[in-house]
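Hi team, as promised in this morning's meeting, here are the two structures we talked about. I've kept the exact order from the run log so nobody has to guess. The first one is mostly here for context; it's the second one we should focus on when we meet again. Sequence first, then the predicted structure tokens.
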Amino acid sequence: MQNQRRRLRGLTIIIWFMTALTATVNGCASVGTSSSRSSSDGYSRRDERQYIGSFSEVLAVAVSRRYVFSATPSGVGVYDRLFNTWSAPFTRENGLTDARISLMVGDPVEDAVWIGVPGAVVMYRPQVEQVQRTIIPGIPDYIAFDKGGTGDAYVRAGRQWTRVSRTGMAFGVSNPPAASTLVLPKTLTDLYAQFPALRSSQSLLFRNQQGDRALRSFAISSGASSPERASEVWLGTNGDGLYKVDPTFQQATPLRFGPIESGIGALALASDGVWSAGLGESQVRGGLSFTSNDLQRWRWVDGTISAPLLGVRVHAMSLRAQRAWLATDRGVVRVRLDAGEDVATWTTLDGMLDDRVYAISARGEGAWAGTARGLVWVNDSGASRDRKTRGLGTRVLDGTTIYALQQIGDTLWMGTSGGVVAMPADGALLRPAGVDPALRRPIRALAWSDTVLLAATDDAVLQLSPKGGVEPSRIVALDMRQVGTVTRLAMDDRTIWLAGSNGVLIMARNTGATRLLRIPTDLPGPALDVVASRDWLWIATPFGLVRLRRASDGGLP
């Protein structure tokens, strides 16, 4: 019996060792508690597929030897202070499974961060993308580190202390460790005691940074100091993101990352990136956000005192000549994208047909706005604007809901509640030839490329020829049932994208092959808008912005 027990113990040790070896090979640092992101979607690097929510509301800040970590409701931002660049954030997609973070501390020994969540402490190493999760009782409220050679973490949860090794092993501690034996992280209170000017001048440090025309000030919510630089402090705010602060010279540098709010309602391509407009669901900030293609440059525009964008739900956006035109639930909004960031609005008080604007098409110094009760021209030229009309001009299709607009040459195509309607430069209203009854049904989305115009109804996508002469045809491969309620249609010379409440259906134009991006495996939520540049596909969702690398054929790997 004793020999059988020894053999069983030996077999258990072998199994345990093989499990540990397998976990280490897969990028896991501890047995049974660690995980790393794996993907079978064809992307070899995580930066080729990114989900990014808002990182404006910072709950905690931690600093390691190389990285600065900012905890937000959307995950943990990772800033590389060696190269002054943002790394891919630590989110639910790659291992942060808890929405609530009780505390966060930078590791003094290696480039890692320790995160306290209910019932566990998570250690994340961004350089190798390792996630180590150790189960402990309670909610962690304090983390310190052993000054000895091990550098293990002491975690306090309630009145109980737990020692957590760097391999994820947990050991109960009967008595709290002496403070002299620990490396104690500085709290925000410690930073205020060391630099009293931070408390008294924070309104000056964080006011009107990077074009915040509303002149709002944001309170400091968290902070940490660099371990090797006494005059380098990193502060988080309750709505203005992360700041690098030199408290000696009273200088603050904002480090924007992520859109101004997580919910994205509309997108528009820029020459070197994309603009996104919010859903108006955030209670902290709202408005427009720009990001460069490499996700390193971010810009936030949240309106002015007289025309704030907080709480405004944007349905569509169109860019032209340094102007962003927004179709919103509060009328038409025009935002100048130059340094002035002037904002103008048009509502029913100014003569709009309806405050519910679903589509917008910028042209010249104005824009066509499709509302719930018709189409209206909005002129933004101060030289020709009538004070009585405030630039509101031609009105057509009174009482008809306009869902989509597409400008092709000098003709404006409209997707309406009564079907497809075209309006040439002379202002005549035309309907395309054809006997397909779908052309008389509500058209939810339009898209155009080359000589092809696509129109989406609730149950079909039709291909039309804007110049006429060709009967409309249905694209059978674009099965509307796979995407649910249609929200947007987009296309270029290689690919067609059909976005909806259940995902995005992608079709290669040359082969007809399709691929579906599903919720929640591929997308965090419904696809509200989609735009594509040569190298990237951008998708707007209620939970953030999705950026996907396009393959050489225009599709996805």
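And here is the second protein, the one for discussion:
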Amino acid sequence: MSVINPKHKKMLDELLETCKKHLPAVNESLLTRAFEFSIEAHKNDLRASGEPYFTHPFEVGMIVATEFPLDDITVISALLHDVIEDTDFNIDLIAREFGKEIADIVDGVTKISGIFKGQEITQAENYRKLLLSMVKDVRVILVKFADRLHNMRTLEFVNPEKQRRIAQETLEIYAPFANRFGLGRVKWELEDLSFKYLNNEAYEEIARKIKSNRRERENYIKKFSNPIKEKLDEYNLKFEMVGRPKHLYSIYRKMVRRNKPFEEIYDLFAIRIIIDTPNNFDCYTTLGIVNEIYLPVPDRFKDYISIPKNNNYQSIHTTVIGPDGKLVEVQIRTVKMNEVAEKGVAAHWRYKENKAASEKDLENWVNWIRDIFENASKDEGRKDLLESFRLNLYQDEIYVFTPKGDLKRLPVNSSPVDFAFEIHSKVGFHCIGAKVNGKIVPLDSVLHSGDQVEIITSKNQHPNKSWSKFVVTHHAKNVIKKWINKEEEDIINQGKEIWDKKIKKLKLTFTPTEISKLILNLKYDSIKQFYKSIAQDKVNLDEVLTATKEKEKKDRVPELEFDKFANIARTDIGGILVDGKDSGILYSYAKCCNPIPGDPVIGYITTGEGIKIHRKTCNNLIKISEKDPSKLIGVQWPQSESSLFVGGLSVLGEDSPGILNDLSHAIVSYQNTNIKSININTNDSTFEGNVTMYVQNIEHLNRIIERIKKIKGVYSVERFQSN
């Protein structure tokens, strides 16, 4: 190749610097050769903007290096991605010059472009979407995403008709698949750019409205965030707190879907807390801090850390009631989770330490990637395309058809029962038989790609326990499990009914504590297991009840009632502070949640009864406060560095010599905790008791609970509370 000019030299230096910054390793010589080859191949071509065509593959390479930093092979493939389609060079030359791996990626990108070139979005769109997800190497689709992203950024230079066609294709095909690959940032940009050209009037109006109230929103977010920042600093957590970016197309879609104006949709304030930690537990610590400061909205909580989305997205989403009663959505994630959320599959690759093993792991993670373009062309009819589609499937997923020809995607090893539930829950529920390719087969048969499946149903059929042994889809497993649980629940209810009738006939009464002790003595794990055994006639109730009542005559130490304990604990700490001070305002404690010192509390202004004190987590409070949040008022238990409150525990376990001494030692030996009282009752081989002590906070109480649980023979330890 000839010596490149200063302008190109500057571009090459920029690309090399970017690659070195983001990629694990860079073959500078190979990348430079690809750069020069692309310049030479496109030297006579111009873009619609009038710029030299080479600016496009260069920008695509830069996008790949920053947005999808997998490896230098992907960047080199981006530089060469249009050579085969737009110049006289062929794929064999690419293979000789740059190797088969790069040639295969370039060939894959070229075939995708050929499939979609000049086609309208029609009813066959679903099949195109399926085809688009089936390329041999994940890097093919990443280069194509980068290619489409740069084309959308420069779409202003093509005619309006082409703008609309490309924008429509981007919105309906490329953006959803960018999301499927976990490329959140790319997905949002593709959607917003498409929206700009498909509905410019709405785009400009929403953009203008967002800009107009920006300062007001920023001030509110600052007011909301400051208390959280202070608390996070106290915990020595390294974090970044940012306002979550608003995406115009997402707002527009909500406006259309909910049939509401911008002002009613754009009322949710949002922040993102990014924790610089390798420990996921710190995310839950942060969630606890947020919920301690602001009242959470229970049905607006999602934990994608414990259960990630299909594209590996992880984050905690919660909505809380901020200052002035406004809703604020808070997202909490680690730095790694944030990078995976924005860069998806590429970030997943980067975080794998063993790069050799990561290739296989990567392919497993995006197991919907398939080899379908080998025999597909833009002129191929739908029937032939589907036939090719059936023959080219790999083993991770299968595609089967309904009798009407509708396509259903299932995991490998799926059965007719999985297929039935994929059609509809009712079909699966009443599935009694199946025909595969016209022949009746057992319900546990394994389906294969291309099978045509017909489900036979009966109103009298219900899920069978044996189904759970062979179904593989989550939906089928879940419905079958619910049905089995319901059947078991009916048996348990039958057992409880027999128990209730028997003790009524014998004119006996049992407190919940007495029943718990009885179950422990009979070696049952739970009361449900006990009732189930009664229904199945595995227990002689007459024998059990006679033996139990004979031993009820022992002297008992008086039990500490909850109301008495709550009164002691509340009086001991000195009542409640309203807005940080003892104002003398009339207040009382809500019976629905019975708050005691140590519980996070909040006040609700009533008519005629002063302020009702609730736990912040009280479901009743959340319901009534939704009608009028202005009636909520901040209240606290009195607190200082040396202040203590009375904490109470209920303990149940196996009676043994020295158990009282063990309990006392476990409590006192932790931070020299002062015990206020211990009440212990024994019955046969079990004991139960109540312990009250002076503790500094809930964390102090929880540590003591953990210590008591470690005592040999202790069955359960719970915080003392009302039933």
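Starting points for discussion:
The mean pLDDT is 79.
The two ends are 84 Å apart (CA to CA).
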